[in-house]
Amino acid sequence: MHSTEMGSPEMLMELAYRLITSEDEAIKNIRENLILLINPVSEPDGRDKQVDWYHRYTKARTEWDDGFPRSTPYWGKYVFHDNNRDGLQVSQGITKGIFKIFFEWHPLVMLDLHESVPLLYISTGTGPYNEQVDPITISEWQIMANSDIASLASQGMPGAFTWAFYDGWWPGYGIWVANNHNSNGRFYETFGNAGANTYMRDLSNARYAGDPATSREWYRPDPPTEKVYWSARNNVNYMQAGVLASLTYAAHNGEQLLKNFYQKGVNSIQKGKTEGPKAFIIPKEQKDPAMAAYLANQLRAQHIEVHQAVSGENEGDYVVLMNQPYRNLAYNLLTEQKYPKEAKFPPYDDIAWTLGYLYGVDVEKSDSISYEDQDLQLLTEEAVYQGAISGNGKNYFIPYQAQNTVLPALYWLKKENQNASIQIIEKEFVVDADTLPKGSVFLEGISNKQADQIASEFGLDLIQGSQTPDSDKVHEVTLPKVAIYHTWFNTQDEGWSRYTFEQRGIPYTSIDKDDLKAGGLKDKFDVILVPRARGNGSNFIHGVTTEFGPLPFTKTAEYPSHGYPDSSPDITGGPGFAGMDNLKKFVEEGGVIITLDNSTNMVAETGIVRNLDSYSASGLFHPGSVVTVKIKQSESPVLYGFPETFPIFRGNGPLYRVDLKDRDMMLLQYGTKPLKDEIAYQGPIMGKPDQENVEKKKEESGKDVPYVRSGMVRNEQTIIGHGSIFNIPVGKGTVLAFTFDPLHRYLNHHDAPLVWNALINWNHLK
Q: Which end of the chain has the least Cβ crowding within 10 Å, N or C?
C-alpha cells in the first residue's frame, strides 16, 4: 500500500513462483489446501513514482541517515500515507479495490505487507483492543503471530516480534475490512531501505512501547544486534518467511479458521437478538437530509444491511436492524467510542469515528423495533434524497442549516445562469409560515427548472415566496476564485482537501511555492486555503532543504510517472521571504487566507498575523476525538447554520490565543466554559453595588457540558475556553485560522461547512 515500502512487491513475485513450481512438501501442502489471492501492488501509481524516484535520485546514495528525501512527493492523485486510513470513508480507488476483492471472495485471513520497524513485526496489537472485534479474532491474531515467531526462530532468523508497535483500536485501516467483517486481518512490518540499496542500519536508539528494539522480551525472544547490515535480500527473506509461516498455519488449520469465521457471524446475529439496541434509526427529519442518505450509503458500502420505512407513520426513516452478521461493525460505527484514559501507550491513530457526529446526522438507538415488517424495505440501491419545493411566489429561498451541498449548488447555478442573483440573509426572515434562519439563501432570477435541479441534484429543500428581504439585511454572494496551497514536503492533507473540493464540485486552482514567489496573487485569487502541513513557519518558508537541490519533479522520457498531479523544476526550497511577503500582500489587498490545523503556525510565526500567540496546554493529550465547541461570535457568517454548541473532530493540533482586547477575533471555542480572564468578577464593587448584574454574570460564565463526546482527552481542562477558529483582520483582508482540521480525511463532513461558509461569505467576514 505504501509506495516507499518497496520490498513486498519484489517478494511476492518470488513467492508466487515458488508456490507454483516448488515440489517441497511444505509448499505442496499450501498449494493443495489453500486458495491464495495475491495483490502485489495496491498503489500502482505510487509504485511507479517511487521506482522512478529511486533510479533518478537515491540509487547512488551510500548512507542511510544522510537526510536525503527518500520518497517521491506524491503517490496517488490525492492521498499519500493515508491510503491506509480510508477504510471508513471508502473514498479512494485503492480502498475500493481492497473492498471489491474481499466481498467477492470473503477470505478467512488477509495479510497486509508493510515496512518500517526492525526486523519483522507480526501484528497482534498492544491494546486497548477495539471493543467490537470478536474475541475469536483477537485470539487468532495471537496464535498465528506466535506460530510465525516459532517458524522464524526455527530458521535462525532473529529480530521478529509480535507486540509493542500498534494498538488494535482504530477500524479504518485497509486490512480492517477483514476484522470488521468476521474474517482475520493481520499485517507485517519488515525493515526497509526504500529501495534496493544495502545499508548499515543503527538500531541502538530504536524503542517501541518503552523497550529497546534490541532487548529480549516475551514478545521478542531473539532480538537483533544494535547494528545490522540490511539489504533488499534480507527484506525479501524476512517477509517471505513470515508469509509462508502464516500460509502454513492456514493450510494446517483451515477447518478451524472456517469454523471461526462462521461462529463470528453467528455471534453477531445472536448479539443483535439478545443485547440492545435492537436497531439504530436515522430519522427522516434532519438538518441535512442528503447527509442522512450518505450515511445509509456508507453503511451499505460496508455491507451492513439498511432498511427504509416505505409506509407507516415514520415513512422515510432509515433503519439498521441489529440481528445481522455485521452487527458489531454497525454498532462500532454508530456509537460513541470510550478510549481508556489509563492506556499505557499512546494510540496509533485516531480514536473516535462516530459517524452520526462526523456527518452531522441524528442517529437514535432503539431497544425495540416499532416498525411493522411490511413497512420496511431492504435498500438494494444507493439512497438518494430528493429535495422538495414548497410554497408559492416568484422568489426562491434555501433554508440554511450548514448543508454540505449549498455551496456546490451556488457554483452550479452561477455557471448555468450568470444573471441569477444570490444573496445571503443576515437575520431571521419569515416567508409565509416558515421562519428562515440567518445564513439562508435568497435567489432571484432563476427558472423553475433550475430550482427543480437544485432540489433534485443537490438534495436541498427550497421555499417559494413573494416576500423580498430588506436590502440592509442581506449581502450579495460573489463566489470566490479559490487556490489550494501545497508544500513539497507534505502533500497529504492538501490531497484530502483537493479530493473534498472535487467531490463537492467546488472549483479551485492548485498552487505551490513558485506561485507565491511569482506574486500578483490578488489578481488571480480571492481565497487561498492552506491545508494542514507538517512543521512550523520555518519549514513553510524554506521547504525541502536546498542542500540536495535542484530536484526536478517533472515528467521525462526516462521518468514518465513524475510531474503528476503537479510538477516543479525544483521541489527544494520554499516560497522564501519574498513569497511570504507576496502572501501577506494578498491578504492586505483584500484576500482571505484560510489556514487549517498546523498551517496556522505559518501565519502566526511568520508575522502575517500579529495577534495570535502560541499556547502550550500543560499535560494536554488530544488524539483524534469528537469534542464540544461553543460559538463565541454568533453573528459571524462562518458559523451560519450551526447551533450554539455542537461537536467537531479534533486531533493533536496547535493552540493559539489572543489578548482579551482582541477576544472578538475568537469565533469559536473549545468546550463551553470561558477562559479564566473572561469570567466576570463576582464580588461586590465598592461604590456601585449591583447584585442583579453579578447574578447575570454568574449565568454567563457558561454551562457545564461534557467536552469529550467520543474518544478521549487527557487534561481536557487545559483546552476549555481556548479558540477553535480565529477571524483576524489584516489590511483589507482576513486570515481565518482554524486550530483543527475541518477537512480531515474526507471524514468529518459535519465540520466542512465551516469552510464552505467562509467561501460563500469570503468578502463579508469582517
A: C
Amino acid letter, 752? A
> CA–CA distance from 2 to each of 573, 681, 730 (Å)?
25, 56, 41
Residue 474 host element (H or E): strand 474-476
**CA triple 683-688-694, angle to 5 deg:** 40
CB atoms inside a 10 Å sphere around CB 297? 17
- Tell me the C-alpha distance between 629 and 623, whole Å: 16
87, 177 in Cβ contact below 8 A? yes
**Dist. CA 483–CA 730, nearest whole Å:** 19
Q: Which residue in the block uniquely carries the three cell numbers 471555542?
A: 669
Alpha-carbon distance 485 to 470, whole Å?
A: 38
What does the alpha-carbon distance between residue 617 and residue 753 come to, in Å, rounded to a whole number? 28
Q: What are phi and psi of 188, to 5 degrees?
A: -115, 150
φ/ψ (deg, to 5) at 299? -65, -40
Residues of the chain falling short of pLDDT 50: 698
- The Cα 489–Cα 573 span in angstroms is 10
The model's pTM is 0.97
| Residue-wise pLDDT tens digits, 336-393 | 999 999 999 999 999 999 999 999 999 999 999 999 999 999 999 999 999 999 999 9
> Mapping DSSP to helix (H, G, I), strand (E, B) and coil, where does residue 517 land?
helix
Q: What is the pLDDT of residue 534?
A: 82
Q: How far apart are CA 152 and CA 154, in angstroms?
A: 5
pLDDT of residue 689: 59
* Peptide bond just before 469 cis, omega within 30 deg: no
Cis peptide before 203 (omega within 30 of 0): no
Cis peptide before 128 (omega within 30 of 0): yes
Q: What percent of the chain is helix, strand and coil (3-state, nearest 5)?
A: 35, 20, 45
- Across 205-314, the runs of DSSP E, i.e. the strands, are 207-208, 211-212, 227-230, 279-282, 307-309
Give which of 688, 743, 669 is closest to 494, Cα–Cα. 743
Quote the CA–CA distance of 321 and 272 in Å, as a whole number: 8
Spatial separation of the C-alpha atoms in residues 568 and 91, rounded to whole Å = 28
Of 167, 170, 240, 193, the residue nearest 9 (C-alpha): 240
DSSP string, 35-85: -----S-S-HHHHHHHHHHIIIIITT---TTS----S-S-SSSS-SGGGGS
Long-range contacts formed by 681-684: CB under 8 A, 24+ apart: none
pLDDT of 556-575, one tens digit each?
999 999 999 999 999 999 99
Non-local (6+) Cβ contacts of 329 within 8 A are 132, 171, 180, 181, 302, 304
Residues 6+ apart with CB under 8 A from 449: none
- DSSP 3-state of 748: coil
Phi then psi dihedrals of residue 332, to 5 deg: -60, -40
713-751 as b/e, with b when 16 or more CB fall inside 10 Å? beebebbbbbbbbbbbebeebbbbbbbbbbbbbbbbbbb
Contact 685/635 with Cβ under 8 angstroms?
no
Concatenating the DSSP letter of every residue in 556-625 gives -SSSTT-S-S--BS--BB-SHHHHHHHHHHHHHTT-EEEE-GGGHHHHHHTTS-SS-EE---TT-B--SE
Closest by CA to 157, choosing from 238, 95, 78, 215, is 238
User: Strand 279-282's sheet: what is its strand order?
Assistant: 364-366, 279-282, 318-321, 307-309, 376-378
